[in-house]
Backbone:
């Protein structure tokens, strides 16, 4: 049995460097209300709820259970959580809808990086035997990848700066973005990456509603149909991988049907400028494709939400009639270790 | 808006991890200044070695010694070392393919500056003075212009191989509890307990978390509750908690403060532990300078009727 499943609504916070005055659920709840309001649904109408978050970011144990306060989980709802970006929560919700167990799903994710030091926090996801004891932070690992790309002749520092400039210029049209407009490329953070090559650190949340078949058409004038979605992972040992390529992205894209017809838009989850270079290569994107009209993760990178936001932004472009076929990508782990690709389409106009 | 509350929070834990046979041989080898790799199914020698083939996921156990010298495959200059990193002076992160290996190992390279580092440069292991069987037994790499060092011919068998490691981790946070809990804590500092009412179901939550978990809407209306309340249920604690200066046995109870629709937790004192009962009426006992009640004690009122608190259990 196959079912057509679509993203029918998307909402996100304004992403900010700090949100001291808000708890996680206080930050998240307005986004949940907004996304439900767009469809006219109430919590009780939702068939399945799935979220993505990580307690390590804000140092709050079981914060995802507190976040459920914002959903209204009584009488008990059908619910699940992944300790991953919300894009993977969306994948789980998509499979749930495919089974026919539910016709609608609420997917949300959030991350508050401001209470901690995210560069250090992310070292805790690394191999605990050989790598984590060295505390290599997320910028350092991305810088190793960037240097490998420069050595391979795939990019250079001016080209990376151009990715940064384009992303933040495009973000001027995105009121939710954290970094917008013309910004200096800055000093080296970890050479060859400068501050401009790195994503902003901040807090934020996002939510989407999925619906199947006719339900999607009732809830949204132009649903963003998920034509394919797949995710793949590479070996965890950095020294085993070719850091200048992303075979996992390419395979996920192939399985999602991305290469069957060209897309007009791609929302890529490339927190570092150099990673956009890798993804463009893996996904065979040429200049005819609009890449990250939202500004992408270089403009706002709320951890655990930035990948879901890529799917949401791609879908919202279809909802607005600005895009007919879009690719959305999400990543997780160091140097694009794990990658998810979704292909979204609107009905012909 | 009241001042945003903040407090330092350190999350610290020693992870005790057991090792597989390949990891054990590799880390024990480092202790003995021997670098071991493992043969993958495709014939490559993987360093650092893993328990399972990265392509086929088969168990791999064929250990091979490689040289402590090698070649940088990529690098990144870290001018501002962070806590826990291998060197506390500026250094290069490097991936190094050791002579005899087909994959690269992540570590630090001690070099005078970025101009002294390039992909393809030759380096060798600088061993730590004290070694225990950990990746940090390699202190770092250092530039090297000699011939590839030859393996010592080690078999990979060790008489006293390590079977586990203890990895310390510490993350520092600045905790802020958010709007609703900040309001609650501010009120507590005036010895008042203030909950929040759900605009939809009208329940009063104490302590408030800013959202009604039943309705999924924001709570905002402040409602002062208590100070007296009713024990709805309780348990008798017989095991002394670490760092807690309270004699056991003692009673820990759910207490529904008058006007609240959710019970909070508190210790019951001023009454023998075996006389605490459901329905017991209690009031908070504050100590000088405390920001929350030390415990609750009986008020002397008659017990509450079961029907008055049965919805709060």
Residues:
């Amino acid at each position: 049995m196959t079912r057509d499943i679509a993203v029918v609504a998307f909402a996100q916070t304004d992403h900010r460097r700090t949100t001291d005055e808000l708890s996680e659920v206080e930050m998240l709840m307005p986004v949940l209300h907004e996304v439900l309001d767009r469809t006219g649904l109430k919590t009780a109408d939702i068939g399945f709820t799935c979220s993505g978050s990580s307690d390590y970011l804000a140092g709050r144990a079981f914060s995802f259970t507190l976040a459920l306060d914002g959903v209204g989980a009584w009488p008990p709802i059908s619910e699940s959580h992944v300790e991953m970006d919300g894009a993977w929560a969306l994948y789980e919700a998509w499979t749930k809808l495919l089974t026919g167990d539910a016709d609608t799903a609420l997917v949300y994710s959030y991350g508050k990086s401001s209470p901690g030091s995210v560069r250090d926090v992310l070292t805790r996801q690394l191999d605990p035997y050989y790598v984590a004891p060295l505390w290599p932070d997320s910028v350092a690992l991305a810088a190793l990848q960037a240097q490998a790309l420069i050595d391979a002749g795939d990019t250079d520092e001016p080209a990376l700066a151009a990715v940064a400039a384009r992303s933040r210029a495009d973000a001027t049209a995105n009121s939710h973005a954290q970094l917008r407009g013309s910004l200096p490329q800055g000093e080296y953070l970890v050479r060859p990456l400068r501050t401009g090559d790195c994503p902003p650190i901040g807090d934020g949340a996002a939510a989407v509603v999925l619906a199947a078949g006719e339900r999607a058409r009732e809830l949204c004038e132009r649903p963003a149909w998920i034509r394919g979605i797949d995710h793949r992972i590479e070996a965890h040992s950095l020294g085993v991988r070719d850091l200048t390529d992303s075979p996992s992205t390419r395979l996920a894209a192939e399985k999602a049907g991305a290469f069957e017809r060209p897309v007009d838009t791609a929302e890529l989850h490339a927190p570092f400028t150099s990673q956009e270079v890798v993804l463009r290569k893996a996904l065979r994107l040429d200049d005819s494709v609009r890449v990250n009209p939202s500004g992408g993760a270089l403009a706002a990178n709320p951890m655990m939400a930035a990948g879901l936001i890529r799917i949401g932004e791609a879908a919202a472009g279809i909802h607005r009639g600005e895009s007919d076929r879009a690719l959305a990508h999400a990543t997780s782990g160091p140097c694009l270790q794990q990658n998810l690709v979704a292909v979204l389409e609107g009905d012909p106009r | 808006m009241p001042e945003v509350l903040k407090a330092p929070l350190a999350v610290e834990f020693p992870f005790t991890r057991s090792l597989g046979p390949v990891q054990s041989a590799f880390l024990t080898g480092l202790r003995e200044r021997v670098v071991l790799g493992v043969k993958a199914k495709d014939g490559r020698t993987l360093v650092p070695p893993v328990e399972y083939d990265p392509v086929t996921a088969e168990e791999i156990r064929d250990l091979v010694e490689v040289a402590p010298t090698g070649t940088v495959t990529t690098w990144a200059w870290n001018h501002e070392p962070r806590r826990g990193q291998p060197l506390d002076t500026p250094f290069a992160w490097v991936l190094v393919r050791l002579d005899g290996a087909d994959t690269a190992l992540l570590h630090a390279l001690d070099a005078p500056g970025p101009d002294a580092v390039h992909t393809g440069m030759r380096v060798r292991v600088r061993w730590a003075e004290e070694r225990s069987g950990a990746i940090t037994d390699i202190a770092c790499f250092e530039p090297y212009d000699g011939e590839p060092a030859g393996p010592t011919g080690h078999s990979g068998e060790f008489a006293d191989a390590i079977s586990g490691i203890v990895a310390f981790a510490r993350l520092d946070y600045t905790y802020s509890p958010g709007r609703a809990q900040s309001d609650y804590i501010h009120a507590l500092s005036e010895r008042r307990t203030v909950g929040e009412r759900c605009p939809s179901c009208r329940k009063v939550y104490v302590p408030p978390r800013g959202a009604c978990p039943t309705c999924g809407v924001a709570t905002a209306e402040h409602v002062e509750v208590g100070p007296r309340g009713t024990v709805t249920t309780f348990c008798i604690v017989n095991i002394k908690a670490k760092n807690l200066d309270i004699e056991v046995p003692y009673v820990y109870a759910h207490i529904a403060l008058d006007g609240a629709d959710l019970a909070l937790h508190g210790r019951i004192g001023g009454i023998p532990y075996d006389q605490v009962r459901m329905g017991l009426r209690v009031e908070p006992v504050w100590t000088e300078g405390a920001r929350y009640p030390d415990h609750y004690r009986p008020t002397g009122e008659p017990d509450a009727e079961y029907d008055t608190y049965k919805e709060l259990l």
